[in-house]
Design a protein that fits this description.
The chain is built from 3 helices and 2 strands, in the order ααββα. It starts with a helix and ends with a helix. The longest helix has 34 residues, at 2-35. α1 packs across α2 (42-65) and α1 packs antiparallel against α3. The chain has a two-stranded antiparallel ribbon with strand order 1-2. It is elongated, with a radius of gyration of 18 Å. By secondary structure, it is mostly helical. It has one domain (2-103). The chain has helices at residues 2-35, 42-65, 77-103; strands spanning 70-71, 74-75.
Length: 104
């Protein structure tokens, strides 16, 4: 039973780490949208394109589902995604860790 317990705890920590990574990628997207870089360096261009490719699917779906988040050209979609990610992170992480602790 201890192996299964450790598996759930490790899964909870992995989920938390993935949400933290997603948080940083979304934060990079926000900063890049403010700066609007026109990179001449291929590596920087690849980084910018990569960040947009990772975040566009999520942000586009939220924009379609909640069109009122775009107000007079101000896009509040990332804020909604931050709240949703925070809720999902806390819910999933704590649930997995508590299940693991109860199995021990």
């Amino acid at each position: 039973m201890i192996v299964l317990s450790n598996l759930f705890v490790a899964g909870g920590q992995l989920v938390h780490g993935l949400f933290q990574l997603a948080w940083w990628v979304l934060m990079a997207r926000i900063v890049l949208s403010w700066l609007r870089p026109q990179p001449s360096n291929d590596l920087l261009r690849s980084l910018v394109v990569g960040v947009y490719r990772l975040t566009d699917p999520v942000l586009d779906r939220v924009r379609r589902a909640l069109p009122f988040l775009v107000v007079s050209g101000l896009d509040l979609t990332p804020i909604a995604v931050f709240f949703a990610m925070g809720f999902a992170d806390r819910f999933l992480t704590s649930t997995l860790i508590q299940v693991g602790q109860q199995l021990a």
